[in-house]
Each structure stands twice: as C-alpha cells, then as structure tokens.
Amino acid sequence: MRSLLGTHIVARASGRRLALAIATLAVLGCTTRADAAPPATSAPPAPQSVLRSLAIDPALEERILALDPEHVSENDVAATLSRAPAPRIVLLHGGVAFTDRIMASTGRFLVGMGYPEMSIRSPGDRSWSMSPYEDSAKIAGLLAWYYERDGMRPMMIGHSQGGIQAIKVLYELAGRYAPEVPVWDPYAGQALPRTTIVDPLTGAEQPVVGLTLSYVSVVAAGGAALLLPNQWSMADKVHTIPDSVAEFTGFSVGLDSLAWTLPGINATTEFRHNGTAAVRSVPLPFVYNHLTVPITGPLAGDPVARAWIDAYTPDQPDSERPGERAGYATLWAADVWYSVKKHWTLEAQRLLRARRAQVGPP
Asked: Which of 16, 84, 116, 257 is most exposed, with the fewest beta carbons within 10 Å of its own?
C-alpha cells in the first residue's frame, strides 16, 4: 500500500502531466497529411487476393507460427512480429476537448513498443483516433472494410466516452441496432453501396453484421457520458458485452467521479458477457486520473518502465510499477500491450494458416 505522501505525489504528477501534455499538443497543433487514396471502387477484393498477396519469407512464417501468444517477448516483437502483418487498431478518444491528442499518446506508446504506425493511424487523414460522436454504424462498417483488406480481425481501444462508443460498435456488429450495416471506405469518406464483404480467409460472402473483432478494451467508460443523447441507448448495455468480440477487457479507475465507479470489482466496475466473449474486469489504482490514463507515450522510451511492461502478464503478482510516480498509468499500458501482442500473434497465425489451407505453403 502506498503511503499518503506517495499517493499525493502521484496525483500531483498526474495533474502536471495533463497540463504539460495539453500545452505541448496545443502548440504542436493537429496538422495531418492524407495518404494517397487507391483507385476508387466499391467492389470487394477478389477472393483469395489477400492470401495470395502475402509476401513472407518461409523462415519468418515458421517463426510466426511458433510464437506463444501468451508469452511474447520484446525480442519476439523486434525480430518476428515487427516483420509480420498486423491487424488494424482503432483508437476511440473521449468526448471533451483535447482527448483526441491525449489518445494520440496511446498510439505513440504502441508504436514505440513496436506496433506498426500504419496499422493505427487512419489511412485517409492520418488521425490517431476516432471521435465518440462518429456514427457507430460507420465505425462498424469501417472495421469490416479493414478486415476485408487485411485478413486479420481488427482491435479497438476506447477511453471514457470512446469506451462507451466501442461497446456500442460491438452492438452494431451484433445486429442490435439494425439488421444491415454498410461497408465504410475511409479514403472516399462514405458508405459503400453494399452491406457485405468477401471474407478474405474463406472467400465467402460475409455480412458486416456478424463480424467478430479479436480484442477490445475500454477504460473509464460509463457514468456521466451515458446522460448524453448519443449514448442513451447504452445505459443498460455498457457493462454487458455481446459476442462480436473474442476477448474484451474493461478497465475501471477507482473513485472515478466521471465514470461513477468505486474501487474494486462491484456493480459499477464489473463487465460480463451475454454469450461467448471472454471478458475481464480490471480495477486500476484509485490514484489514476480519469482523463490522463491514456497519456502513456513516454513509457516506451523509459528503459526501466519498458522492461517491466514487456515482461508483464495479467496473472503476475502486483509489484512496484516504474513510471507511476511520474503520473503514468503503467499498469493499464502494460495490460493493453500484453493483449495487443497476444492478438497480433493470433491474427497473424490465423492468416498464415488460412493461406496454407487455401493457397498452399510459400
């Protein structure tokens, strides 16, 4: 248990971290560049085109398939996964000013730990994250577009109202809002005239409704944001996770006056499934700040914190977490990175096994 002095230091550092981040980001601005768009087409890729286009050295393919998803080391990322295909990660920021720039710090953390930047930032405007005020059906259609072209089920990471929106997207994919959802093209910035994709692994036609994501996590989701009109429909759903994701982690900050959560696992913090999704509820230290949790970018450049994060597993005994006295949410960062590595490995292996089954070995 930390002393009251230690708690005070962490709380003050967290506040200073927020002020510094906002000031710095305000100076830097939010200039982005747009990637060159591919030729406009509403047609899906040809069956097996994703599998046939994979260009991976046979020795590298064997190393990818040999990885243990539950124990991916820093060397595994550097020597193997960094050369493998990566699923799309969609970040969803909170609903107040500057939270897009705060969530960008999470994107930079993931990139600093070894995840490819091109698999996080929007291929259109190069933004790091999406707004919780975007139409949830649009986000669901966008995730289907990514899966159709990557052959790997996407991930979502949401903060605050962005966490609520991530769960709302899962309900869109489960068909709870509409029986059909259009595919969304991020380059054209519009819905395509179809509600199905060609499954890149099987070649079968697949509705957007029914698509399953690999991993979704939310932090500080719920509470006051549910009073907003765009989230009214989630008031009775935010803690119940549908089958449109394989693994879900819900993080809560103890004594969170905005998300209305209390310390520990209780009615305000517990997430549960309503079918087959694997769901974890993880309480975070009460000294964490609702708004600043995603500010984790500097942790990737801190050798001591990085080593602790790379070695982290969810079942390890609690220990002193480097970086937290400077105000960083090291535990949250470590758990998210553990799951991202795990599902990066699983999706890459799933893709390669599908190619062997459909096309043959390289």
From this structure: 257
Residue 311 contacts residue 36 (beta carbons within 8 Å): no
- Helices (DSSP H) in 2-92: which residue ranges? 4-28, 49-52, 58-66, 74-79
Percent of the chain with pLDDT strictly greater than 70 = 88
Contact between residue 241 and residue 170 where contact means Cβ atoms under 8 Å apart: yes
Joined tokens for residue 246: 């394989």
Within a 10 A sphere around the Cβ of 2, how many other Cβ atoms? 14
- Lookup: tokens for 15: 């506040």
Q: How far apart are CA 235 and CA 164, in angstroms?
A: 9
Question: Residue 13: what are its φ and ψ, rounded to 5°?
Answer: -65, -40
Q: What is the pLDDT of residue 8?
A: 32
Encoded amino acid at 147, one letter: Y
DSSP state of 170: H
How far CA 110 is from CA of 18, 178, 328, in Å, comes to 19, 33, 15
274-297 pLDDT, tens per residue? 999 999 999 999 899 999 999 999
Residue 106 class from Cβ within 10 Å (0-12 exposed, 13-18 middle, 19+ buried)?
Answer: buried
Please calculate the CA angle 65-69-75 and round it to the nearest 5 degrees.
Answer: 80
Q: Which two tokens stand for residue 220?
A: 């500080």
pTM above 0.85? yes
Instruction: Sketch out the chain's domains with CATH numbers.
Output: 48-358 (3.40.50.1820)
Confidence of residue 15 (pLDDT cuts 50, 70, 90): very low
Identity of residue 350: R
Give the whole-angstrom CA distance, residue 37 versus residue 30. 21
- Token pair, residue 11, equals 């709380």
Q: Are 325 and 287 in contact (CB under 8 A)?
A: no
Residue 12 has pLDDT above 60, yes or no: no
Whole-angstrom distance, CA of residue 362 vs CA of residue 64: 14
Residue (of 181, 162, 311) closest to 238 by Cα position: 162
Helix (H) or strand (E) holding 163: helix 161-173
CB 225 within 8 Å of CB 165: no
